[in-house]
Amino acid sequence: YIVSVTQNSIPIGGALVCVMGGDEVYEYGYTSPSGEVTLTISPLTVDTLQVTVTAHNYLPYEGYTEVIAEGPYVVYENHELDDMGGDGLPNPGETLDMSITVINQGVATAWAVEASISTDDPLVTISNSLSQYGNIPPGVSATGMTDYQFSISPSCTNNHWIPFTLQAMDNADNTWTSFFNIVVAAPLISY
Length: 191
Hints:
This protein is an all-beta fold and about 190 residues long. Helices cover about 0% and strands about 55% of the residues. Strand 4 (about 15-20) and strand 5 form a beta hairpin. The protein starts with a strand and ends in an 8-residue tail after the last strand.
């Protein structure tokens, strides 16, 4: 990632450039006399990175840059739950159907996309972990053709977070991993 620092088209050497993004990216370096610095960054997600530049006798610069994927980039967008209780909440002892919508944030179509869910939570049993999404053009969202299904143990407690991993892949063997959580709602009994 090359950053050029200039003022009125004149290069500024010795400027400190820092690029940050979530827990994935933190890289910094000083510009050469030509006003350029090359930072080695490898973000794992399409996101916005913060860029800060400081130099002696200059006002600091704070701005942003967008991470743009090469090719397709399919990630989790949202989910909807269909539960046995009909209240729309995941409760202990329920089996739930879950539809997941993904979005292609890349610049090319993802062909023949399918995705699977998993969790390491011992209080959850997944009975249908796979769904097909078809072809997803850039910037377009798609909902799985079949719902995922999982059951929550009756011994699960209120406000228990269930961490899910969604792994999507296309017919070109591209894979993308997303993470999301579901919070269990159990009745609170007071007397």
